[in-house]
Amino acid sequence: MKFQKLMVGPETVRMLQLGHPWVLADAYTRRWPRGKVGDLAFLVSESGEVLATALRDPESRTVARVLAWEPMELTAAWLKDRLIAARHLRLRHAQLDGTDAFRCVNAEGDGLPGLVVDRYSDYLLLQFYCDIWQPHMPMLLKVLNQVFRPQGIYGKERPQNTRVLESQWKDRGDLGQLIDGSAAPTQLVVEENGLQYLVNLKEGLHTGLFLDQRVNRRDLMARAEGKTVLNLFSYTGAFSVAAAAAGAKRVTSVDVSPHYMNWAKDNFGLNRLNPKKHDFLVGDAFKILEDLARENRRFDIVLMDPPAFSTTKKNRFSTKGGTARLVEQVLPLMEPGGLLMASCNHQKVSEPDYQKELRRGMLQAGSTLRLIRQGGQGEDFPYPPTFSEGRYLKFAVSVKEA
Fold this sequence. Notes:
With 402 residues, this protein is an alpha/beta fold.
């Protein structure tokens, strides 16, 4: 097998030597010979030192992604070793008792850049954040079947501008496609933390269950017994189900989508929880918070896990600025000593910046919060310390002072 040697500039050399797995387009990469997406290449310094082996993505801003820090060939045996290592990491370190929905491969975190593999019961869902794996798909599917033995494998492309894609494709059919094996039921039942949830591997950008929040739902379950809980941006109600199953006295779920709210009620019923004993409110979160304040409602626990960006008829939400406004409206509804469990999945918002949003909202509300836990994604979402982009999920648990 012949490989291209691609020269990188001093700044890229420095980043590669620090262990960062991406090569960004610059004056040096613009001089590279033409190549195809998925081509294997050696990255070399100006002195000719081989720094890494990477897969090319010529039309992307990230023009190459590192597979290994030494010369290697992309063979089925090499790929199988990587997948087995990823599987063993989860078996050894992730708490997966009562769980059959989790991440099997986390892209750069498992040395397979641009490739995400999620397990939903007996099915795999491949998410492609770039096209570098498309030329290697036959080999990839063969090895995935050998290592994980699924009944079927679905594929879904995940371009960077997912917000635009979702708005354009909302009424244009399924984004997830069966690419190998047998089809999953439209409503597939999966298990997480001993609870059952309905997922759909074909519809939309998401499946109905955010796997990266598993450990945070488990944390909620340890705190929810006997409590009144408000779940904003509840989506299909996974946090709401976790709270109710753990013995919460009353759970109020809020989401702008009637479709997802009905899905949430189905998840309650699936776990033999009577949805009539809880509240399901459809509408804009800020408007409903105003209504709850007028009704003098109070809550022991408030969850807020908004999308990084969202738009309703009356409000446009973004993490920067929107989080502080949410906190300002939420805190007056909380009982003294209550818990605010706030989450952000915006990769470009750092932990310190997110805490600034929480602080701004706290000060605007004239309240005081004490941060008692900082969490993130679970052990099945590993990332190298050299790749800060892998640490995207922020989950802050704070106590409202009396």
